[in-house]
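User: For a teaching handout, I'd like to show students what a predicted protein-ligand complex looks like in token form. I'll give you the sequence and the SMILES for pyridoxal-5'-phosphate. Please answer with just the structure.
Assistant: Understood, here is the input followed by the structure.
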Amino acid sequence: MADIEVLDRNDPLAPLRALFELPQGKVYLDGNSLGPLPTAARSRVEAVVQQQWGRDLIASWNSHDWIGLPVATGEKIAPLLGAAPGQVVCCDSISVNLFKLLATALQLRPGRPVILSQQDNFPTDLYMTQGMAALLGEKRCVARAVPADALMDAMDDQVAVLMLTQVNFRDGSLHDIEAITRAAHERGILVLWDLAHSAGVLPLELDSWQVDMAVGCGYKFLNGGPGAPAFIYLAARHQDRVSQPLCGWLGHAEPFAFEPGYRPAQGVASFLSGTPGIIGMAALNAALDVFDGVDMKQLRAKSLALTELFMTGVRAEPACADCVVLTPEEDRRRGSQVSLAHPQAWGIARALIEAGVVVDFRAPDVVRFGFAPLYNSYRDVAEAVAQLARILAADEHLQPRFSARTRVT
Ligand SMILES: *Cc1c(COP(=O)(O)O)cnc(C)c1O
């Protein structure tokens, strides 16, 4: 393996690790599932609970601008997406936001009922589409999911919107947003990108790629905390032509006019529905400060170096011979995780966690190693490879204590 110490010493992003509260003695490789706690988020939550909620009470909606937090947090996320102001709002979960945007897309393409997606997309994306189809009936909405290599052929004149996830959650493969968006637009199809495993780790240019709509996750690479709210991006060019079906009072032009009839707020703020969870959103808002001054291209370069070092290390270890690397080797095809398939993947994941290397398992046979360039070091990679090889060489993963399944994997 390359000289790890030199790599860490020369890493311009290494100081950012100090902005996180990472437990001693652990190698945390699950930031693609739950980002660790930024110190800034801890202090903000304390302030929100003690001063804002505890002391200032309801006045805080105005005095601490709680009411403006969804838009303000959206504007803080926007630069990470390559989005000009006025197009991103923070709210709800990805699942709920998909529902709002899918309904919007169908409205924008009347006469085209199909929502096209990829068979191995993240299940909630497919489930929400199935729910939309059940609600609207087959004349108005058809859920179609095909294998990745059949997407181009499936883009016919019945398709209203192509809904894809840039980085596949299971194997870490990466779609070319710009090329696929262009191909869809040539066929009159809108695109809705799920950026769950992209926002905060990949350089994104949604405006210049002409993306129509996107959603993304607050609790993965944005480090906003468990259940942190998600976000919606809706390109400015569509905003005055659409309405969304979950039109709750906070998406109204004047919520405190308490009118009986709905009038949407201007712009993407009309995609808000109900009252936001302020404590969780404040944590995400503070966590985003970690990205101040960070060059996303530099972040991506380190992410690629970490994942490549890991794949090379695994391939070089005779003990890892039965691990199949599912993640593409080509840089432009790889997100920020490496997935290994192995028949005993569950036991391997449990043994790694016991050894202090925090990874996760995805059914049926995948161990995921998520690399977050904000806080993972090259030493973390070396330790992960070493522990994996040690466990496999000793057959430690076969020990009975690693066989019981947990509810969350
Ligand atoms: C994590 C993830 C989600 C999560 O959806 P929520 O509704 O926010 O829980 C959705 N899509 C993808 C691709 C994900 O990886």
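For the handout, you might add this sentence: The pocket of pyridoxal-5'-phosphate is lined by residues 93-95, 122, 124-125, 165, 169, 194, 196-197, 217, 230 (CB under 6 Å).
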